[in-house]
Design the sequence.
């Protein structure tokens, strides 16, 4: 045989693949080709150096995309988070409309390697995960999550099985968050406990799906989202109606799931959905209520009004849903439903915009929300809802050590919550924030009283139930805490890890250590449960597991101080704090 044909050697190897791409690159190039090219070239040089520092290799740069290979999932994900940090740092010197932001996807598996690069399905999966990732986020496959879940102190939100372009089978995916504390408060699905169908409760039950925002800019969706949240809030005040929590309803914002299927997933009889079109001083709202058993629309309405009528429209929609689901309403409940409208409609707009940020639970988003709530209060100093919302942002700041003035954060939160309940004693939010402040000031009777007032005003608020349960557990009433947490989980099927942490704490107080372990191993963010798991294994005498958990905790929380933790614990009973300290010391803390 003649000729000198070159044979390419292909080998298989296990590796973690990261693919990152610039968001809106074509638009940026269209605006300023030279500037964008120069900025990206400089940024890619920084990223290549960071990749090498994380023991990775940039295999290819394709236009605005980076393909990198790592031996371990740990290094790949750490680089993915670092990539976003470097990009944000670089953006500080650029106008906002010229920011270079990335999406990133990471997958781990066998890949094909030759002298031209890396290939195969597992490379494609990383690229497709990048395509569905949110800007500034890293999306990882379940194979990556299983490798890093106990090693890295990041937050993880389970996104469920994702259909990826040109990938035959759905890929279970997670979103990585650099601030794990906030991720523990965010709504999330759980792979181990997914129930296709939950039976509806014995009373009329409804889920309000996020209203679609028609026309205008996508950034205008805050108004449709805010309207949806307020309708959920209004409905939640009726004790004879079972209402799915806002966080679980909003899981269906980006899906096209039929309402009957959504109802089966959430375990409710009725589903409300609608659309909003806002133009200048006018608003057009369409709403329908669907009976999931029959698939029939049992009520529908279209409103074409001045935007000043928004509160009247909310009340009319609430009345119609309540009437259609045949809920019996007492006069006291009807009075409680009436919300105090702000004197200035712009103040309401600022509050709705703030809501867009507060549920993301990051330091920066919490700060953005606080700024918007402060603007609302500046427009209307008697707006109770804005005052309660500011108190909430300060409570979150204190809870996760984000506050600049941590020593006085709780005191300031207290004053805003007190002002909120003075201005509007029918708003549950103010009493809920008051309960949290009182608990961590170790004023237990005041905390329990405030939470009970809040739940009397809004019995379907799942987060309030969870916080109330935590206050009960810290006050020694653990059985009541467990019952309230179980109800919170049913109202909010995609409940955050925080509910499991609260439940684990109640079981630990009762010395039901197996129940603690069973509960906390369901957390999507295992590093946050390691302390209680270590104490529980130690109390059971399983010292190998206890020491293993303690070692992992030290790696993820190098600054943890047992003495400081014991001082902050808001237990009414000293024996509860000593019981936990005993378990931690046995585990090697």
Sequence:
């Amino acid at each position: 045989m003649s000729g000198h044909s070159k044979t390419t050697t292909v080998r298989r190897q296990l590796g973690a693949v990261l693919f990152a791409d610039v968001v809106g690159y074509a638009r940026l190039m269209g605006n300023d080709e030279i500037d964008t090219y120069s900025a990206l070239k400089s940024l890619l040089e920084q990223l290549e150096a960071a990749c090498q520092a994380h023991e990775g290799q940039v295999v290819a740069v394709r236009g605005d995309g980076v393909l990198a290979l790592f031996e371990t999932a740990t290094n790949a994900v750490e680089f993915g988070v670092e990539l976003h940090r470097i990009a944000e740092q670089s953006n500080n010197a650029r106008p906002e409309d010229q920011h270079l932001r990335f999406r990133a996807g990471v997958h781990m598996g066998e890949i094909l390697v030759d002298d031209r690069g890396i290939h195969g399905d597992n490379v494609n999966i990383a690229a497709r995960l990048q395509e569905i990732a949110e800007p500034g986020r890293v999306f990882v496959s379940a194979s990556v999550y299983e490798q890093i879940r106990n090693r890295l102190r990041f937050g993880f939100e389970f996104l469920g099985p994702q259909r990826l372009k040109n990938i035959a089978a759905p890929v279970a995916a997670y979103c990585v968050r650099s601030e794990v504390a906030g991720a523990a408060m965010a709504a999330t699905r759980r792979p181990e406990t997914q129930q296709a169908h939950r039976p509806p409760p014995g009373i009329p039950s409804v889920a309000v799906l996020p209203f679609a925002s028609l026309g205008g800019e996508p950034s205008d969706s805050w108004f449709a989202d805010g309207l949806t949240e307020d309708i959920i809030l209004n409905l939640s005040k009726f004790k004879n109606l079972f209402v799915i929590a806002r966080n679980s309803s909003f899981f269906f914002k980006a899906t096209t799931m039929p309402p009957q299927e959504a109802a089966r997933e959430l375990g409710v009889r009725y589903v409300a959905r609608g659309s909003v079109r806002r133009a200048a001083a006018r608003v057009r709202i369409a709403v329908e209520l669907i009976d999931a058993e029959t698939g029939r629309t049992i009520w529908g309405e279209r409103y074409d009004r001045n935007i000043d009528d928004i509160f009247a429209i909310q009340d009319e929609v609430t009345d119609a849903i309540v009437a259609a689901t045949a809920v019996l309403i007492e006069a006291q409940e009807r009075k409680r439903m009436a919300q105090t409208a702000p004197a200035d409609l712009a103040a309401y707009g600022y509050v709705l915009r703030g809501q867009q940020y507060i549920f993301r639970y990051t330091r920066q988003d919490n700060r953005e929300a606080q700024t918007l709530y402060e603007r609302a209060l500046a427009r209307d100093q008697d707006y109770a809802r804005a005052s309660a919302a500011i108190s909430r942002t300060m409570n979150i700041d204190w809870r996760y050590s984000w506050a600049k003035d941590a020593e006085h954060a709780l005191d300031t939160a207290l004053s805003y919550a007190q002002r909120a309940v003075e201005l509007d004693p029918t708003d549950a939010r103010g009493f809920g924030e008051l309960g949290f402040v009182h608990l961590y000031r170790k004023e237990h009777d005041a905390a329990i009283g405030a939470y009970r007032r809040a739940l009397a005003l809004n019995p379907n608020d799942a987060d309030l139930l969870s916080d109330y349960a935590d206050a009960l557990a810290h006050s020694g009433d653990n059985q009541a805490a467990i019952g309230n947490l179980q109800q919170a989980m049913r109202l909010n099927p995609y409940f955050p890890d925080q509910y499991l942490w609260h439940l684990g704490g109640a079981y630990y107080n009762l010395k039901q250590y197996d129940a603690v372990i069973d509960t906390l191993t369901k957390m999507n963010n295992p590093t946050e449960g390691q302390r209680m798991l270590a104490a529980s294994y130690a109390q059971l005498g399983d010292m190998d597991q206890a020491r293993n958990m303690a070692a992992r905790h030290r790696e993820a929380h190098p600054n943890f101080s047992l003495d400081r933790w014991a001082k902050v614990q808001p237990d009414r009973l000293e024996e509860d704090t000593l019981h936990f300290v005993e378990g931690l010391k046995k585990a090697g803390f």
Residues 210 and 253 are 6 Å apart (CA to CA). The first strand starts at residue 11 and ends at 22. The longest helix spans residues 33-53.
